[in-house]
Structure formats: structure tokens, C-alpha cells
């Protein structure tokens, strides 16, 4: 009885892409550990968590975009522009109070930018890829053209928050230290909030419904336009949080470093099993996909891969990783379907 | 009906935008077509001035006169003017864009300056204006624009090979000439970055046999993609993979702050030496804290002095050749790049560390 149950859960697990990503992560970390002996050390793990923080937050934006409508590629530039405005707010007003006010300012601007996306996408039913590509370009123009933003050392109050850490570890063997910044806590809270929203509110279920089948969702009583508008607006707010986190971590506001980050984030989300055409995907998948790509990008030097091969390997892992889970799952599902059909005939 | 109007409105807006764009690109095309420079125009000997030295006016045009970098340049420009008793004026555009710079150049031409010394924002965009200046008998020199066509001389602070060697000398000095080191570039596709990196390695192999480039001597060790965060992540990994790493160089301005952040976080301050490229104000905290040992760049003051000095020599009818002394440190015996006959190269790396950082404010 026990056996059949666990094999059933295993089979169920095996139809989920997260399972394969998890296996790949496991194998990869064992391989890196065997080659370098440095993977499973406390400071390396903390380093990984630290590098994951901002991509994790971005992943929520990409994820919400996919499950409700389609690709959202504007989050890096919303992050950049709202991060810039929040930094300027601190400079201009000389604000020295609690950091969450800085976040609120950024979120305010992020929501406005997200609302522009949402309004165009929901109201005119334009493809989200085209709209967000367009707004990306506009936001980038505003940031670099209108504001002429350059590299800015952050004000002291923001740096102070960036230097605060949840905890610090020191590797006994090598003496190398590492610390986990507070921003990681922000990422975790965002995941919890998103999880609760998607699974326990009517609007949250609506996000999946709208992405799965627009017409059915409408007939079921969901306000499709309002949900899409809401998702992209919220995406703007989340991106703004990521923007401030990124600046805080690097102690600079770096206007040119945001653009282009969307690709690897989207790759991570797809790798984690989110379907491009909407309605399907889990937050667990987002976390695992992001974890996998962070491990890959952060460990190639550890195992001594030459610099010119690093990009090749990252690309290969994205393709192979996605392919493995897609092929495995369609095989398994196909197998089940065939069996059922046979039974039907008999 | 409403929708139709909206669509019509969009079409009109689109049309206006296109019109605006096309008129802009039209003017820049005009500018670049002026690129085909006349041979006679580019012979420095034709620009000898008949006026007395005290009547000359040399106009210097910068990218942005409010930037600390060009304020520093103005010090050198004015110094030359006072020493030689020549009128110099330094001007910059109101906005740091190519079109505004063209305006400043045209204004100075209209004022009847005898020579122009320009630091172009976009060399291509000012070709026509510079050609106009030359055809009116105004001598033109440039800085940081080795691909400028309508200029008599372009002056650069150093060759990539010399600068790379200086970076290595500074690193070797901080490391005690032995131990493992790593080098970071912005992009492996950036020609200058890779030239700096290759030159560092060549210098190390020639002069510091006890030093060793990690990863079997592969150039470069890492690529920051011109990102402080990228530099930080890559540096952290290298420091973990090579616990006995003693030195680090970074040639993009993003590299050394990223490396310094990584070194600080890993608790290796004092054990890893960093030599980077950047401006003193930007990195003063790191230099003072000792996390970045040395900063290399060139001094805009001396470059400004050298530029005006060349312009004055042209007006005086002096020939500028290999070995000419421009009268300022680093430019005492200039090289001229063969083939171009107009790229003048000094050897003026400026090395900044804890002891002299307060002397530089740019």
C-alpha cells in the first residue's frame, strides 16, 4: 500500500517540469562539488541566494505576465526608471527616514508605468510582447534621454540598508565570508504574497482562468480586462521593488545595467514549466528555474570553464533543460492517454 | 466613428514623428558627407599665422564644461594661456549632445578664433563644422578622436600597450612582484580592453617572472559586461576558486568597484591588491579605505595643455614630428602613429593612490 502510494506520487511528480529541473539542479551541484569542492560550502550557498534575489523578484513579473496574458519584457526598464526616480527623491528631499518610504516611492512610479502597459494591453487587446517592447524603449528613452541618468553613488541612507544583513557566514576552511542582504527577505515575502493571492483569492484564480481561456473566463464571470490591467499594473510595482533592491545591492544606481536582463529571467521561468501561452505554471517552478540558471552562471568560473565557453554552456543548459522536461512530460502523458484509450477499446 | 478619429490621430502623430526623425537624420547625413577631406586643408603648414602671438585666440570645445573632468582640463588650458601669453577660451555645450556641440563650434568660428581644440562627443557629427573651420583657415586639433577626419592632429595620452604595461607595473608594485593575479575586462569584444589586457600579460611575462596569471594564463580571466554587479559576481567566484589570488586588475570603470565590493565582503581586504581604471572622485572612498590600491587614467589638465600647445605650434608654423616636446609631463617626447601622420601619442598615465588622491578633484 505504502509502495503504490509513493510510486503514484512519483509518477505524478514526473509529469511536472519542476521535477526535472530539480533533478538537473541536483546533478549539477554534485558535479560542481566533485570538480571544485566548493559548492556545498556555507559561503557559496549564501552567495547563490544573494545573486538570486533580484532575478527571483523579476521572475514573478515574467510569471504573472505569462500565466495571465503573454510575455512581459518591460520589467527591467520599469525597475530602472522607478529606481532612478526613487533615488532622485532621496537626493532632492534629503530624505533620511525609513527605507520602506523609498520603496513606496519607487512602487508608486512602477505602478503608473505598469498601468500604462496594462491599459494598452487590456483595453485594446494588443499583444503584450509588442506593447511591453514599445514601453521598454520609451522608458529607456526617458531614463537616458530626458533625465540623462548616469552612474550615481547611492545616498548614505540607502547604502546603510544595503549593508545590513540577515546573517553572515564564514567558511571555516577558506576563511571566506559572505552575508545575506535584507533584500532576500523582500523576495521571499513577495513570493508568499503572490502565492496567497493566486491560490486563495477569486481574483488570483481569475488570473489563471483568463490566461487559460479568455472566453471561458469571461463566461464564468471574470472581468478579463480588469484582471489583465491589474496584473500588468502590479507587475510594474513588483519591478520597481526589484529595481531598488538591485541598486541597494550594488551601492550604485546603474542606469545601463537593467536592459537585457529580461531574457535570462524569462528563460528561467519557462525552464521552470510556465507555459508560454498562458494559464499554466507554478511559483515553485520559477524558483527552481531561477536557481538553476543562477547556479550555472555563478559556477562556471569555479569549475574552470574558459570565458569564451561560458555563454555557450548557459545557452545549452536553457535549451536542454527545457527540452528534457517537455519531452519527458509529453511521453508520460502520452503513455497514460494511450493506456486509457486501450482500456476504452477493451 | 470615435475609433476612426483616434486611428486618424495616431496616423498623424506617427507621420509627425517620422518627419521629425527624418529631418534629424538628414542633417547628420550632411555632416558625414563632409567627411571626404581635402588634402590641402589638412596640411598643418598652411595654418601659420601672420599675427603676433599675443593676438591669437585658441578656442577649446569640451563635451560638457560643467563636468569635473573638463573643469580639470580648463586648469591646464588656462595654465598654457598664462605661460605663453596667448588668449584661450574653453567652452562647452549647454547639453552634452552632438548638436549642441556643433553650435558651440560654429559660434567660435563666427567669433574668429585662430585655432580650435575640440574633444568631440561624436566625431562623425562635427566633421562638417570642423571642415568649415579648416576652410576658413582655422587650425583644428582634437583629443579622444583618433578616427576624426577633419583635424590636423588628434592627441591621445598613451598607446594601449603603454597603458597596459603601466597597469601591470602598478599591480606588481602593490603585490611585491610575486603571486597569482587575475584580470577583468568590460567586454571581450572591446578592442581597447583586450589590448590593455594583452599588454598587461606581455609586461608581466617580460618583467615579473614570479607573477602568474590564473587559469593557465588565459586572457582575460573574467568579463564584467560593463556592470558593477557583474564584476562583483565574477570577482567573488574567482576569489573562491583561487584562494591564493593576490592581485586583480580591471580595465572598465565598472570593474574595480565591483571587485572591491567582493573583496570586502569575503573579508579579504588587505590581502588582495586591486588596480583599476577610473576617475578619482568616483573611487575616492575605495582608495582611501585601501581596497583599491591604485587607479590609472590620464590627467585631463595635461591633455588640455597638450592640445592647446599643439594648436599654438601650428599657428607658429613649427613642425610637429616624432619626439616633439609639448611642454607638459607625459608629452615631452610624443610619438606619431605611422600611416595617419596626425595621431599624436604621449606617455602620460596618471597613477592615483592614497597619497595623492586629494590633489585631484575630477
Tell me what you see in this structure:
Chain A has 346 residues and is mainly alpha-helical. Chain A has one domain: ABC transporter involved in vitamin B12 uptake, BtuC. Helices cover 75% and strands 4% of the residues of chain A. Chain A has helices at 2-14, 17-36, 42-68, 75-93, 99-124, 128-146, 156-163, 183-200, 202-212, 214-219, 224-250, 261-271, 283-299, 307-345; strands at 152-153, 165-170, 177-181, 252-253. In chain A, the strands form 2 sheets. In chain A, strands 1-4 form a two-stranded antiparallel ribbon. In chain A, a hairpin with a 6-residue loop joins β2 and β3. In chain A, α3 (42-68) packs across α12 (261-271). The two termini of chain A are 27 Å apart. With 362 residues, chain B is of the alpha/beta class. Chain B has 2 domains: 42-157 and 300-347, Rossmann fold; 160-297, Response regulator (Rossmann fold), CATH 3.40.50. In chain B, 44% of the residues lie in helices and 17% in strands. Chain B is built from 11 helices and 14 strands. Chain B has helices spanning 2-33, 68-84, 98-111, 127-135, 160-175, 191-207, 214-217, 228-241, 255-265, 280-289, 300-316, and strands spanning 57-61, 87-91, 115-118, 139-143, 153-156, 179-185, 211-213, 222-223, 245-250, 273-277, 294-298, 335-336, 343-345, 349-352. In chain B, the strands form 2 sheets. A 7-stranded mixed beta sheet of chain B has the order 2-1-3-4-5-13-12, sandwiched between helices. In chain B, strands 6, 7, 8, 9, 10, 11 and 14 form a 7-stranded mixed beta sheet that branches. The N and C termini of chain B lie far apart (60 Å). Classes of the chains: A mainly alpha (346), B alpha/beta (362). Chain A binds chain B through residues 36, 38, 43-44, 47, 51, 148, 151, 153, 170, 174-179, 246, 249-252, 254, 256-257, 297-299, 301-302, 304, 306-308, and chain B through 95-96, 188, 215, 218, 220-223, 226-230, 232-234, 236-241, 243, 254, 257-258, 261, 265-268, 282.
Amino acid at each position: 500500500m505504502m509502495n503504490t502510494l509513493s510510486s503514484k506520487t512519483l509518477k505524478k511528480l514526473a509529469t511536472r517540469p519542476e521535477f526535472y529541473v530539480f533533478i538537473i539542479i541536483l546533478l549539477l551541484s554534485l558535479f560542481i562539488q566533485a570538480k571544485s569542492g566548493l559548492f556545498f560550502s556555507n559561503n557559496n550557498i549564501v552567495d547563490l541566494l544573494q545573486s538570486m534575489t533580484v532575478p527571483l523578484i523579476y521572475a514573478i513579473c515574467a510569471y504573472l505576465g505569462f500565466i495571465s496574458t503573454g510575455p512581459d519584457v518591460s520589467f527591467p526598464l520599469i525597475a530602472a526608471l522607478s529606481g532612478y526616480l526613487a533615488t532622485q527623491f532621496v537626493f532632492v528631499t534629503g530624505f533620511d527616514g525609513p527605507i520602506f518610504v523609498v520603496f513606496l516611492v519607487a512602487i508608486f512610479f512602477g505602478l503608473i508605468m505598469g498601468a500604462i502597459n496594462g491599459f494598452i494591453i487590456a483595453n485594446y487587446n494588443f499583444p503584450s510582447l509588442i506593447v511591453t517592447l514599445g514601453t521598454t524603449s520609451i522608458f529607456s528613452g526617458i531614463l537616458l534621454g530626458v533625465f540623462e541618468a548616469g552612474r550615481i553613488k547611492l545616498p548614505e541612507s540607502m547604502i546603510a540598508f544595503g549593508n545590513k544583513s540577515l546573517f553572515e557566514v564564514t567558511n571555516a576552511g577558506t576563511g571566506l565570508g559572505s552575508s545575506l542582504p535584507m533584500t532576500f527577505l523582500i523576495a521571499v515575502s513577495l513570493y508568499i504574497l503572490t502565492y496567497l493571492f493566486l491560490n486563495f483569492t477569486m481574483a488570483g484564480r481569475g488570473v489563471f482562468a483568463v490566461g487559460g481561456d479568455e472566453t471561458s473566463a469571461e463566461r464564468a464571470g471574470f472581468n478579463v480586462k480588469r484582471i489583465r490591467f491589474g496584473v500588468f499594473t502590479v507587475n510594474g510595482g513588483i519591478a520597481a521593488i526589484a529595481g531598488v533592491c538591485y541598486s541597494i545591492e550594488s551601492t550604485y544606481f546603474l542606469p545601463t545595467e537593467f536592459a537585457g536582463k529580461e531574457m535570462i529571467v524569462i528563460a528561467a521561468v519557462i525552464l521552470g514549466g510556465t507555459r508560454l501561452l498562458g494559464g499554466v505554471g507554478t511559483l515553485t517552478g520559477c524558483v527552481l528555474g531561477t536557481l538553476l540558471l543562477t547556479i550555472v552562471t555563478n559556477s562556471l568560473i569555479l569549475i574552470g570553464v574558459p570565458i569564451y565557453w561560458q555563454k555557450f554552456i548557459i545557452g545549452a543548459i536553457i535549451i536542454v533543460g527545457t527540452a528534457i522536461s517537455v519531452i519527458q512530460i509529453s511521453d508520460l502523458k502520452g503513455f497514460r492517454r494511450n493506456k486509457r484509450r486501450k482500456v476504452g477499446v477493451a | 466613428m470615435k475609433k476612426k478619429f483616434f486611428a486618424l490621430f495616431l496616423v498623424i502623430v506617427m507621420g509627425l514623428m517620422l518627419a521629425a526623425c527624418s529631418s534629424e537624420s538628414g542633417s547628420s547625413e550632411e555632416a558625414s558627407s563632409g567627411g571626404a577631406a581635402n588634402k590641402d586643408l589638412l596640411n598643418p603648414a598652411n595654418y601659420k599665422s601672420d599675427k603676433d602671438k599675443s593676438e591669437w585666440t585658441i578656442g577649446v570645445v569640451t563635451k560638457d564644461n560643467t563636468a569635473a573632468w573638463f573643469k580639470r582640463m580648463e586648469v591646464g588650458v588656462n595654465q598654457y594661456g598664462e605661460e605663453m601669453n596667448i588668449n584661450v577660451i574653453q567652452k562647452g555645450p549647454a547639453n552634452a549632445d552632438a548638436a549642441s556641440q556643433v553650435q558651440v563650434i560654429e559660434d567660435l568660428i563666427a567669433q574668429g578664433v585662430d585655432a580650435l581644440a575640440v574633444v568631440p562627443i561624436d566625431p562623425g557629427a562635427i566633421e562638417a563644422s570642423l571642415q568649415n573651420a579648416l576652410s576658413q583657415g582655422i587650425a583644428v586639433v582634437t583629443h579622444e578622436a583618433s578616427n576624426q577626419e577633419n583635424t590636423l592632429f588628434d592627441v591621445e595620452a598613451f598607446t594601449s600597450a603603454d597603458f597596459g604595461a603601466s597597469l601591470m607595473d602598478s599591480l606588481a608594485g602593490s603585490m611585491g612582484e610575486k603571486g597569482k593575479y587575475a584580470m577583468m575586462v568590460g567586454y571581450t569584444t572591446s578592442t581597447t580592453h583586450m589590448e590593455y589586457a594583452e599588454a598587461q600579460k606581455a609586461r608581466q611575462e617580460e618583467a615579473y617572472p614570479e607573477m602568474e596569471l590564473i587559469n593557465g594564463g588565459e586572457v582575460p580571466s573574467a568579463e564584467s559586461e560593463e556592470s558593477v554587479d557583474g564584476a562583483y559576481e565574477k570577482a567573488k567566484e574567482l576569489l573562491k576558486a583561487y584562494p591564493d589570488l593576490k592581485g586583480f586588475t580591471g580595465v572598465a570603470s565598472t570593474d574595480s568597484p565591483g571587485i572591491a565590493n567582493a573583496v570586502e565582503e569575503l573579508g579579504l581586504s588587505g590581502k588582495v591588491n586591486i588596480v583599476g581604471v577610473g576617475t578619482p572622485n568616483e573611487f575616492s572612498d575605495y582608495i582611501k579605505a585601501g581596497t583599491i590600491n591604485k587607479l590609472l587614467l590620464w590627467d585631463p589638465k595635461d591633455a588640455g595643455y597638450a592640445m592647446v600647445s599643439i594648436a599654438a605650434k601650428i599657428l607658429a608654423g613649427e613642425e610637429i614630428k616624432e619626439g616633439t616636446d609639448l611642454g607638459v609631463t607625459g608629452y615631452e617626447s610624443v610619438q606619431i602613429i605611422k600611416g595617419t601622420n596626425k595621431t599624436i601619442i604621449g606617455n602620460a598615465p596618471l597613477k592615483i593612490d592614497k597619497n595623492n588622491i586629494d590633489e585631484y578633484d575630477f
